[in-house]
Amino acid sequence: MKQSGGYKTKQKEQIIQYLTAHEGEHVTAQELSRHLEAEGTPVGTATIYRHLDALVTDGMLRKYTIDSRTCACYEYLPKSDACKRHFHLKCMACERLFHVTCEHLDGIEAHILEHHGFQIDQSKTVLYGICADCRKEQDGE
Amino acid sequence: MKQSGGYKTKQKEQIIQYLTAHEGEHVTAQELSRHLEAEGTPVGTATIYRHLDALVTDGMLRKYTIDSRTCACYEYLPKSDACKRHFHLKCMACERLFHVTCEHLDGIEAHILEHHGFQIDQSKTVLYGICADCRKEQDGE
DNA sequence: TTGCGTGCAAAGGTTTTGCATGGCA
DNA sequence: TGCCATGCAAAACCTTTGCACGCAA
């Protein structure tokens, strides 16, 4: 695996540092850009996209397009394989994204593969619904 | 449910007709636009987007984005309530859509609701992955 | 010194919005 | 006739690309 070969630059370090610090969260290019600017170390948009792209290719990052968002989201992938396996639950009410790691859900993947011949890609799949908090609110109304 | 209330116009009919004729397939705004133009009844881009948006709100259409694509895809949802009781599997290779009805899968919904407090909406959820046929092809290569 | 990395600006593409006009009810 | 629907153009966005300069090795 090409470990994002190339020079070690300040910009690259900043980007990777932010991404790893937000492991398990979804980060957009814009958020990353704003963060770096707020830190006093602004990085050009083109550079950000170039690095994100390279990191996705290297397998260090996952790229998503969530729902109706027009922009892509990126998520840092911990190196341990165990953590790579989780489903995403997207609340249609509050729009929050939940990460669920669960053996039962892994069983579902196996079931679909065995009985339906379909190999699910968890990294691309988002389950839509309503989260607990929002259901409470809706019941109350 | 507001059945896309409003006037019945030629443009609207054309759009809905095309979408229903392509049930189970993904359609982009661009494809729709080109098709209508080819038919000799061009419809403005803005109008197309406005209708697609309205139809998504009405629940007649599902909107989603495929990773590699830069544009959003839309898919007609059959009215039959049957579709609300099964999951949709989308093959990322051949782009076909599979409808899976399975008791085991219904268990997913119950499990997530009980253990994670999240109420899944099957009609909005698409599981992405690779279908049996495409996996065979990939293995063969 | 070499050549990749960076930033700016411009291009490319999709989707949204403002506004005057047209068409359904 | 009263409004919504439409279409054009422009704006708003996200992302990519070209190019000259800067910096790591």
Annotate the secondary structure layout:
Two copies of one chain form a homodimer.
Chain A: H1 10-21, E1 27-28, H2 29-38, H3 45-58, E2 61-64, E3 73-76, E4 87-91, E5 97-100, H4 103-116, E6 119-120, E7 126-130, H5 132-140
Parallel strand pairs in A: 4-7
Antiparallel strand pairs in A: 1-3, 2-3, 4-5
Helix pairs in contact in A: 2-3
Chain B binds a DNA duplex (25 and 25 nucleotides) through residues 6-12, 29-30, 43-47, 49-50, 53, 70-72.
Poorly predicted tracts of residues of chain A:
none
Q: Which CATH architecture of the largest domain in chain A would you pick?
A: Orthogonal Bundle
Query: Topology as H/E string of chain A?
Result: HEHHEEEEHEEH
Give the radius of gyration of chain A.
18 Å
Trace the largest sheet of chain A across and list its strands: 1-3-2
Overall pLDDT metric of chain A:
84
Q: Give the fraction of residues assigned to helices of chain A.
A: 40-55%
Full CATH superfamily name of the largest domain in chain A:
Winged helix-like DNA-binding domain superfamily/Winged helix DNA-binding domain
Q: How much of the sequence of chain A is in beta strands?
A: 15-25%
Span of the ends, CA to CA of chain A:
53 Å
Q: Kindly identify the CATH topology of the largest domain in chain A.
A: Arc Repressor Mutant, subunit A
Q: Structural class per helix/strand content of chain A? A: alpha+beta
Structure annotation, total helices of chain A? 5
